[in-house]
DNA sequence: CTGAAAGCGCTTACAG
DNA sequence: CTGAAAGCGCTTACAG
């Protein structure tokens, strides 16, 4: 192994000196900006390698006022959702010369103590903000500072006109619930609603309600409980319905994770799926097709949404030409848990 | 909504001027370093809020030579693994005054073009590098530059002595396979190995082999196939065994994701689980307890490993006192898919 | 094709 | 308790 140990912090000046050029020239070769004689460039590159020189991002941003990096701000989203989203964003960024830095806010919003985000206009050319990732006030403040922003799964705070990327939660939900009603003749369809803090939940529930309404089924509030996009909450909610003898012949879970919890609770109570109670979900998580019975669900283009968000952000940064709303289609996937 | 629109880029000088103090004083109040008269501090804070001032990270790092930021470098890991890991890391960082920035390298290693990582000694006080996140050469180069590093699920390249955090893959695997042998009398136990690029796979397979050996079962190479930590590859591998009439009465999948694929393939072929073929996994993914039959597996402290990595890194940065190896215990979870 | 020099926004001895 | 000034490592007109 080559010993690459160096006196710490090689700077552009060290490179310039050793290559017998000015720092301006080194800067030009590193950035491929301005003209440099090929031989000079070669010499500089070889010194860079010798010295193991790495440009200082901060200094660079400071001097050039641009970062060529995109920021992603996330709450602590879980499971399959994150990786698909990230893959999509990276695909969207690929081909453009931007890096992607991520800041996750599992810990909740920060106090005045650290009164600025680690990702902001000073180290980022633009931000993708996922639902709940940031308070509306904070978003307003960022846009006021002229930072290009694209919202994922969250609509723009009033008056700010921030582009938003999401997918067809409402229509997807309506379709799957209508399927339950029309094809499988279910009338007592319960809904395990998603997290109250995510807009997706609202639209999915609305789709559910519209399906009922359009098929002359009276909405019964008893049939809606919080599944919170997680198995455990869903399990408890279903346990409660069962304990209270609530009559139901189908469950529409706001995501596949909560469908999982519903299935467990139903099984424990000896219910047969789908004969006694049909179960459908949303998202089409990687595990859904492997369940028994395989889960009927709505395929959500999570990766596609990530990609679209990245593309919109880059367009916003580079040309200010964006769509205020990007709404990707969803598609019902009929498997066995609905009775098909 | 308050209009916070400001002339872009408020600097410390703007704040200083408006507060009628020097930039040095503003710096002192922002950083709570050095003494400042309470009234002065109040005045400065109020100007900061008025002007919506946000310090420039790059300038700060440049001037102070410290970033109070930790970096996490990841390959494109998928599913539940990521969120648990991240939660752990954030827990580990909580209480210390560091931010966490993440760089994911789904796209694969970068060329000379961008010859430096977006996360390095210039914007980070230390790095957590997850398996495969970075080539060994690159790691060597980073340590040569004196950047504190902790490796997650990857042992230190020879001679570098970088601290490593992982969990007991080998013993966990041995235990679960022995359970299959001793309790359920299985002798033809197949193994769906994990990704060849992750060390975990190696240790899990070794545990499997040791269990066989210690119970006088001759290792049969036909019984090992690549599951690659994913359902699809596992499904194909099991299909192949079945098509070739390979005799087997149990499958030890290197993770729960591949166990999922195995189950699907077995079901499709009409095999009963666990009567005909027992299936066990590794990790204890969130969905595992919800499967039918519930999946017997090894609980891996993914979150704990993340937490430990963060703690080790902070110790390394602040005191250079670290454990070269942190090996967290794993625990078999007996459910129904093994026959229990 | 190349260099000297100002400036990006901050921090930190040093002096008072 | 506060300020003047140098310096962190880079980029970018400007001049040649």
Describe what this molecule looks like in 3D:
Two copies of one chain form a homodimer. Chain A has three domains: 7-64, 434 Repressor (Amino-terminal Domain), CATH 1.10.260; 69-167 and 303-328, Rossmann fold (3-Layer(aba) Sandwich); 169-300 and 332-338, Rossmann fold (3-Layer(aba) Sandwich). In chain A, 40% of the residues lie in helices and 15% in strands. The first copy, chain A, contains eleven helices and twelve strands. A six-stranded parallel beta sheet of chain A has the order 2-1-3-4-5-11, with helices on both faces. Chain A has a four-stranded parallel beta sheet with strand order 7-6-8-9, with helices on both faces. In chain A, helix 6 links the parallel strand 3 (126-130) and strand 4 (149-152). The longest helix of chain A is centred in the last third of the chain and has 18 residues, at 302-319. Chain A is elongated, with a radius of gyration of 26 Å. Chain A starts with 11 loop residues before the first helix and ends in a 7-residue tail after the last strand. The structure holds a DNA duplex (16 and 16 nucleotides).
């Amino acid at each position: 192994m080559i010993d690459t140990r160096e006196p710490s912090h090689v700077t552009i000046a060290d490179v310039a000196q050793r290559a017998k050029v000015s720092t301006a020239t080194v800067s030009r070769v590193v950035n491929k900006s301005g003209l440099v004689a090929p031989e000079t460039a070669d010499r500089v590159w070889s010194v860079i390698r010798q010295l193991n020189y790495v440009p200082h991002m901060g200094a660079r941003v400071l001097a050039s006022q641009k970062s060529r990096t995109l920021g992603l701000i996330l709450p602590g989203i879980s499971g399959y959702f994150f990786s698909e989203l990230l893959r999509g964003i990276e695909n969207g960024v690929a081909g453009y010369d931007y890096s992607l830095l991520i800041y996750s806010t599992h810990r909740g919003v920060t106090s005045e103590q650290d009164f600025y985000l680690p990702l902001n206009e000073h180290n980022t050319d633009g931000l993708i903000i996922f639902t709940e990732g940031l308070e509306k006030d904070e978003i307003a403040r960022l846009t006021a500072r002229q930072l290009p922003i694209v919202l994922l799964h969250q609509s723009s705070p009033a008056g700010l006109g921030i582009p938003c990327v999401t997918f067809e939660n409402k229509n997807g939900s309506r379709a799957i619930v209508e399927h339950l009603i029309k094809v499988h003749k279910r009338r007592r369809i319960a809904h395990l609603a998603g997290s109250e803090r995510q807009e997706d939940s609202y639209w999915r529930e609305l789709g559910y309600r519209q399906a009922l309404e359009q098929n002359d089924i009276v909405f019964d509030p008893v049939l809606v409980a919080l599944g919170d996009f997680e198995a455990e909450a869903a399990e408890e909610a279903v346990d409660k319905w069962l304990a209270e003898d609530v009559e139901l012949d189908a469950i529409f879970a706001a995501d596949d994770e909560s469908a999982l919890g519903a299935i467990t609770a139903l099984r424990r109570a000896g219910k047969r799926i789908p004969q006694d109670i049909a179960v459908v979900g949303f998202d089409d998580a990687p595990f859904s097709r492997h369940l028994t019975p395989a889960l009927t669900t709505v395929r959500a283009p999570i990766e596609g949404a990530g990609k679209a968000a990245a593309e919109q952000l880059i367009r916003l940064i580079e040309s200010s030409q964006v769509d205020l709303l990007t709404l990707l289609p969803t598609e019902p996937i009929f498997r066995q848990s609905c009775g098909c």
